[in-house]
Amino acid sequence: MKTPRHLDELFTPAAVVDVDRMTANLDKMASYVAGHRLALYPHTKTHKTPELAKEQLRRGAPGVTCATLHEAEVMSSVTDNILLAYPPVSLPKLQRLVDVAGKVRLSVAVDSLVVLDGLQRALHGTDVVVDIMVEVDVGMHRVGAILPNDAVAIARAIENSKNTRYAGLMFYPGHIRQHVSEQKYDIATTRAVINEFLGAMVQADLAPTRVSGGSTPTALFSHQFEGINEIRPGTYIFNDRTTAAMGACAWQECAYSILATVVSTSVPKQAVVDAGSKAVFKEELRGVPGGDGFGALLDRPDVIVKSMSEEHGILDLSKTDWKPRVGDRVRIVPNHVCVSVNLHTHLHLERGGEVLDVLAIAARGW
Amino acid sequence: MKTPRHLDELFTPAAVVDVDRMTANLDKMASYVAGHRLALYPHTKTHKTPELAKEQLRRGAPGVTCATLHEAEVMSSVTDNILLAYPPVSLPKLQRLVDVAGKVRLSVAVDSLVVLDGLQRALHGTDVVVDIMVEVDVGMHRVGAILPNDAVAIARAIENSKNTRYAGLMFYPGHIRQHVSEQKYDIATTRAVINEFLGAMVQADLAPTRVSGGSTPTALFSHQFEGINEIRPGTYIFNDRTTAAMGACAWQECAYSILATVVSTSVPKQAVVDAGSKAVFKEELRGVPGGDGFGALLDRPDVIVKSMSEEHGILDLSKTDWKPRVGDRVRIVPNHVCVSVNLHTHLHLERGGEVLDVLAIAARGW
User: Fold this and answer.
1) What domains lie within chain B, and their CATH numbers?
2) Which of A192, A288, B121, B313 has the highest CB neighbour count under 10 A?
């Protein structure tokens, strides 16, 4: 693939990364975790790109986090330490898991005895050992053991097999989203829940070596949760409109955008660009202040993508004096970066409009 | 790639097509257009799969519709007649358009003089001729010339270049959505707008040879729009939860689903499956009756996907007696099939659980 020299030469829509902003985001998180003696296992679901995982490892991350087996397979080319933060269920998945675990040190999140049992059966007869992180629910109510006693039971059952080893506790504080900048998030309740789980484990003589938490919105407050020694943020490498709207980053820290071309201005007070729900994704801002729409222009955040079809993004021009013309180019910051990156095949790394590199988003799909 | 023999052997999430339902959907539309002397240019954005375009062509479609240049490039391997239903803007796109137009008979939707001018400049000096469909706005307010005089001006300007040829009028009735089954849709107003455009063209001695309309919800009513001689539905090959909710198909005509595995039942009244917004997509049902959520189970439509993370779909069990267990498999009909297919790399064609074929979704991306 011949690399175009400048954004103006790119076919649109195209996924674009401001390399200086990305570097600053990476450095900021690396510095935070170093200052608080936390291990950073960056979640690769956001970029799905091994070259960017390398940038995270180079800054001190001991390994990476993956959600899917395909992510783990791809990332095994750049690290030998992977945390699979997803309960692995069903034989086709477990077979691939055993293969990956044969190549790298694999830690796996498990939230029930039945998942653990399936994993132990799949590993049986091999000499592969998998580290188990007992996943507990600290308020998001998605997955995770609900009761401390259930977490203890899972940890105990890990010993039933020589192929599994108890490594620690894991949770995802995805419910703590609102008003992070004002610290109005519900840290006290969540801390109490975590402490309850930790206490039960200690009492059962199962004190965890690793305690893994952290998402991008809460990442920089991780030191306020006692006992946590690892975090798994993903979005922080690029940030997005949601992260900015909840105050967990500045707008100027948004590094990812979708380059698009204005294709029609025939309907008054709007302009249509060639990036729709198949390039931007169609996820609403939820539970955070900051407005309607599915994205906003990087250089004109008062212009939002008010609606979308598959290949059409409709820009709302009601709050701007800007008069776009057909052929003009814009850069859209999506509401949710992880699902937008996943729609593209390549990331175009740029500085000041110059395209420095084009990276394949190799871990898309399953 | 070794083809698994049965759905039970598939890695999940996986995109699955009930081949008998798909065949029935294809036959039904082919029969409708034959009975009403309409030309069917099926929109390939829905399946993005050349083998399925072949099935449509085999049933009498004279060509296909594409939204993107990449779709057109891929579909040029199975047909020599393509309608690009999207205004092509900017040089990188126009260069690829000229290449495609050198291979097949290409018709292109144009809704402004500036788009036409750019296209004519790109074609200048070549011996390639492109058919132009003047796109007009009949009520959706997305793209399309608003005033009949503007449409006339575009049609006249087509003669400015020997590389462009006036072929007809085109519109997309995407605003006619609600209560199709009860015929409560606003057909009279839309018909009047279409007639206004047609009348202006005839008066300007520009009577269009082709008049292209039609979307899946309105497809089977196309004969009620006088003057239309082509339609461009896409969704009809698979249908989806939106199509069913608006009464434009029966639930039993939904041919596409995402196969998923239950991975957690730890939180009461819900089950978590391994298909989230990166496999199902996250588009709400809008303006149609039929409920909340982002999808529903094919075999249990009372169970909806009430929320999603990237790799987690949360099934709402509040309206069912069904007690899923970890490891159970389900099939999810998404709200919007086109954007869900676009998330996958392969379609698994099945009959009674047996996997008959695996097709690459070759036209994804741009």
Assistant:
1) 19-239 (3.20.20.10), 243-360 (2.40.37.20)
2) B313
